[in-house]
Structures are given as structure tokens and as C-alpha cells.
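haha ok so turns out i had the wrong file open the whole time. this is the CORRECT one, sorry everyone. sequence first:
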Amino acid sequence: MSDTSYSKIISNGLWTNNTAFVQLLGLCPLLAVSNTVINGLGLGLATTLTLVASNVMVSMIRHWVRPEIRIPVFVLIIASTVTIIELSMNAWFHELYLILGIFIPLIVTNCAIIARAEAFASKNSIPAAFTDGLSMGLGFTAVLVMLGAMREAIGFGTLFQQAHLMFGDAARELTITLFDDYRGYLLAILPPGAFIGLGLLIALKNIIDKKQSARDKVVITKPAKAATATT
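then structure:
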């Protein structure tokens, strides 16, 4: 696979075909957990690890799994991976694990993971499957972090609160207080606030894509006009 193909895989995962912005998959944990940056980052990294591991394993066994049983096998691989991640988080990040709660095991039901296993990993090489899983996971994590930052800033007036849950006691000083004596804005940390925030982010992406598409058309039109004038 060429470098151009790998760059296309990365751009698809991070932007063009972003799991949350475009495919609108995994919205339940996305909206439920993204009330702070750290919560969003924790779930995003867990999802990324699952995507990478499951994609690689599916790609490894793609020549030996019969088509009739491929979906149950993929689900088994994903469930095993999520179980390992869940037990590891319980051991090493116990407080964060308690906060994320049921949404860690529910990664198994994230349609984006089984979709990438079926649509991409089962048809491509291990390096390509790894790249796809990593880019898709990081794209999903980026949306979680952006939405978490927006909701935390408006809802609590802080950024990176409870960073010690992921990075240890030394990270307690990472908390940034944006507004002193801020009483908070309840709507931002409730599910309706998550829907509104995600809608605003999707609208922003669509505006950027529209402007980029307009610029690309201008660039393509100019050489065409120049060629016509020359002839």
C-alpha cells in the first residue's frame, strides 16, 4: 500500500469519515461521558486501544475465518479486548474506572468497532488495519476531548479537573480555573447540553468542509481557464 493510501486512511479517520462527526456512531458514550476533558480522554483512549487491537487481530486471522462465522468471531475478539482493558483500568485507574462505569464494557457494542473490523480490517493487511484503527480511534477521542472541554468550561468553569485520576497525584496542579467563584451552568453537563455541544461541533466541521471545497474548486478552475487561454 502506498504512502498516499496511508495518508488517505489517516485523513478518513481523523476528519473525512470521523466516527462521531460523520458516521454518528458511538453517540451514547460520547454524550454521556464527555462532561469533562479527563473523562472523555479516558474513554477515548480505551476505545482507541480496542479499535487498534481488534483491527490487528481481525486482519491477522482474515484468511482463516469462514464468512459464515466472521461476525461472531469479530465480536468475540472485541469482547476479549474490552475485558482486558476493563480489568486493567480497574487495577491501575480505579477511580476513573468507577466514574466511567458501564460505558467501559459497553465499548463492545460500539458499532464503529465492529464496522471497522468488517469493512476494513478483514480485507486489508495488518499495517493498514493498525493505521485505520489508530486514526479512527484518535478521531473519536478528539471529539470526546473537544466536547468535554466545551462542557467542562461552561458547566464547571474549569479545564482538566480530576487530571490526577489518569496521570497521578502530580497532575492535580494541571487543573485550570477559567472563572473564579463560578457557580456553573447545569445545562452544559446534562445530556441536552451534550447534544447541543455536539451539534455545534458538527456544524463547525461542515462549515470548514464547505469552505475547503469552495477553495478546491477555485484552484481546479484556474488551471483549466489558463489551459483554455493558451490553446
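Residues 159 and 176 are 5 Å apart (CA to CA).
again sry for the mixup
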